[in-house]
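Hi L.,

You mentioned the student needs an example of a multi-chain input paired with its predicted structure. This one should do, with 328 residues in total across all chains.
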Amino acid sequence: MAANIENRKNNNSCIDMASDEARRDLRNAFGSFTTGVTVIITREANGTPRGFTANSFTSVSLDPPMLLICIAKSAHSLLEFKRCSHFSVNILSEDQREISGLFASKKKEKFKLVDWHSGFSDIPLISGAIATFVCRRERIVNAGDHDVLIGEVKDYTTTPGAPLGYFKGSYFTLGLDQPLVSAANSRGFIKLGGIVSQEGKVLLCVDDQGNVSVPLAPESSPNVDALSAKLSNLGLHPELDFLYSVYTDSETERKGIFYHGTVKGVAPVGYAYFPLRDMPLDKVRDVSERSALGRYAHEYRHGTFGIYHGNETSGTVQQVSKIKPSIF
Ligand SMILES: Cc1cc2nc3c(=O)[nH]c(=O)nc-3n(C[C@H](O)[C@H](O)[C@H](O)COP(=O)(O)O)c2cc1C
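Structure written out for the whole complex:
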């Protein structure tokens, strides 16, 4: 935010956090750090479990094993954590988004709505979490509008699984790589392509009839490395950054897997760059490519990208990142 930058310049180093806008802006800047999501749990003196969602978890020390979480001084459960002897940290899996929402709420009956069990020292643990740590409360450090709760790890568990991610106020999951893995292992034909752009223009292959398609990896090796190598051999500099769309044609069982990325270099023979505003979608014969390209143009305009997973009639898009479009 320009006002803050100005303020810092004038005031040497101090940022004025008095306004809601300034706080929102700083929270957003802190939110650039991608985290997982945890639920922190303890028991009240009478045994009632208390817990809240936290993404401020950080490992601190291996020997002795220590970790920390920052608790807002406004949290209703703060007092319980200040006087507890033990607490647990539960790292949520990608399918536990609702649990995160539940424990971020002020609902009274949180523990009636989730599966949990007791762990070391009778501290509740969330069933299905990909890792849990039970800690002895080591100390609480006063830090502005939060307290830092430091714990010594007394017991922990890990379970295979993908984590729930959190970035700039939105959840995301990495687990969509799983359909990719099963697609790669499936017997049906797999097509792996890249939706790669340079300064608001998408690189497409153009055939003799003027039909277009996204650049594809060789059929014999449908993987990202093979696609990158193919584009590099054409004199281009591709950077494929994330999985953009996993598509299954329900009739043919064909899989279409498209990666998102950027590319630098002059379009080689048989390829051309098409402005996103004016993509020849009617010349894209493959329905999965057409829908992925149409969505790409839309998302580029709005600066928000998602991962699509589904088929030709239905699917889900999960937001993964926001960019500032360089054009439009
Ligand atoms: C993804 C996410 C991360 C959060 N991280 C923290 C955190 O690190 N520390 C914190 O005090 N509150 C955090 N919160 C907010 C608390 O979960 C929320 O204020 C909760 O209601 C506190 O519960 P309580 O008031 O019953 O103690 C987070 C919320 C969400 C959705």
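You could point out the following to them. The domain at 176-322 is CATH 3.90.79.10 (Nucleoside Triphosphate Pyrophosphohydrolase). Residues 37, 52-56, 70-72, 75-77, 100, 103-104, 106, 166 surround flavin mononucleotide (CB under 6 Å).

Best wishes,
N.
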